[in-house]
Amino acid sequence: MQMEDLTKTQIVLLTLLVSFVTSLATGIVTVTLMDQAPTEVTKVFSRVIRPIEKAVSTVEVKAPPVVPKETTVIVKEEDLITESLAKNAKMLVRLYEVVEEAKNYVGLAVIIDSDGTVVTDSALINSEYTYKGVLFDGSEKLLSLVRYDPKDKTALLQFARVAEDILASQSGKISFPSVRFADAAAFKIGQTVLVLGGDSRDEAGIGILSSMQYRDSSTLVDGAAGVATVLEQKAGKQHPVLAGLGTSIRTDGATGGPLLNIFGDLMAVTVIGATNNPAYVPVNAIVSQLKVFHDEGVAVRRNIITEIPKDEAVAVPSGQ
Predict the structure, then answer these.
(1) Which of 4, 197, 291, 312 is deepest in the core (most CB within 10 A)?
(2) Is residue 145 within 8 Å of 155, Cβ to Cβ?
(3) Other C-beta atoms lying within 10 Å of the C-beta of residue 142
(4) Which residue ranges form the domains of the chain, and what is each CATH number?
(5) Hey, CA dihedral for 279, 193, 133, 115, is it positive or negative?
(6) Percentage of the chain modeled with pLDDT above 90
């Protein structure tokens, strides 16, 4: 058979066969020559090949980088609500007026700073009476009236420091759990709100924020919202001030108690409205009233305004 008669497939196979035989023959010849080569030649080959083998063996093979796995944590609104209520139950105070030997329940209050200052509905307070507060753990402590005007919607009281409490505290300072204030600028109609109350046991209500009432800061406003108005005027600002909130909640036994968002922040304090329905004094008014107390000290209005300078109010510290 002539080469011209071969097909393409046969030519390819013949080429592979010749390559294989050539490689095999080359290998045999190389090994034979290496066996017959002088010792000096083999040493040269060994010196060249061994460093190459060592370099190849020390090459580090890096593992691919580990990509951290992202885990999404889903927090249910129900969990936020139950946590919020449980946390704020420790800041809830049940108020009792002490008349001679009797102790009469009047309503609720909320601890708003670590000094033991509490805020409540001013309609519950009589400046001639003495008050006690029952804390979440059942302990009772005397309260002193520190900021009160019948025209205001809220009043401030403070737990009195007694010798036993001061001795029990290693630092000499008694610290109370207090609420965290919400940002009034972030309030939105329709957001979920909670009410915490109950005469003898904790009760809760849930609903939505249904309305927000504003007043012009250029006019003088009586009541707790008026405190915020006065501060705005002193700062030279003229814009609407949040003066009240409305909700879809209808709960009895919550007067003086807190209105909360789902994160447990204080949005307002429940008071008795003009039609005996719940009304809510917003947090901006409460913060302003607390600031005035810290700055100016005790002020209790009975028939006339009686103000006690801070440096003379020994029995009830101003909280600074």
Answers:
(1) 197
(2) yes
(3) 15
(4) 88-176 (2.40.10.10), 180-310 (2.40.10.10)
(5) negative
(6) 44
